[in-house]
């Protein structure tokens, strides 16, 4: 947690940042401008998360109601099908024996993102973390509320490409968010909006 806060890192107090407590009116005005900008980034984060979460939730409700216990639907021949699968493992069906552990990890990711959101000043990072948050919430909802039991529920997967694991929109959001974070890190853009070069 401490390492994550160091990476995300905008200090909460002027003293922590090494800035003198007495600031000119101009500096105070700049600081006041930063706060609304930060709030907008937080709004983007939670807006993206809500969109990803609702899209995943609605898609799973449709799949359970219309596709479960029915033959797969071919979308692009046998290259892409919609097929309802209950997955007790992690993303793309890995680790089915560790359902409770994956549930705890998803919950921890949500807590960390929510905690660090107040120090977020980068729009691309807000989008990336929003995708991660929405995807984690989507699959966590399945693990809590679906059978066989609380924190052991099987996730509903339905997107089935040929020669690949079956997955859902929450998995897609998590992977896209992860890829975006890697690209941002390579570009040297930090979550607090600063750019560094190694």
TrEMBL record:
TM annotation in the entry: 42-63, 90-113, 125-145, 165-186
Alphabetic keyword roster: Aspartyl protease, Cell membrane, Hydrolase, Lipoprotein, Membrane, Protease, Transmembrane, Transmembrane helix
Subcellular location: Cell membrane
Span list, region Disordered: 1-35
Entry's Gene Ontology cellular component terms: plasma membrane
GO process terms (BP): proteolysis
Compositional bias (Basic and acidic residues): 24-35
First-tier enzyme category under EC: hydrolase
EC number: 3.4.23.36
InterPro entries reported for this sequence: Peptidase_A8 (IPR001872)
Record's keyword annotation contains Hydrolase: yes
Substrates-to-products reaction catalysed: Release of signal peptides from bacterial membrane prolipoproteins. Hydrolyzes -Xaa-Yaa-Zaa-|-(S,diacylglyceryl)Cys-, in which Xaa is hydrophobic (preferably Leu), and Yaa (Ala or Ser) and Zaa (Gly or Ala) have small, neutral side chains
Pathway recorded for this protein: Protein modification; lipoprotein biosynthesis (signal peptide cleavage)
Molecular-function annotations in GO: aspartic-type endopeptidase activity
Positions annotated as active site in the UniProt record: 157, 171
Family indicated by similarity: Belongs to the peptidase A8 family.
PANTHER family associated with the record: LIPOPROTEIN SIGNAL PEPTIDASE
Entry function: This protein specifically catalyzes the removal of signal peptides from prolipoproteins.
Protein name per UniProt: Lipoprotein signal peptidase
Species of origin: Streptomyces viridochromogenes Tue57
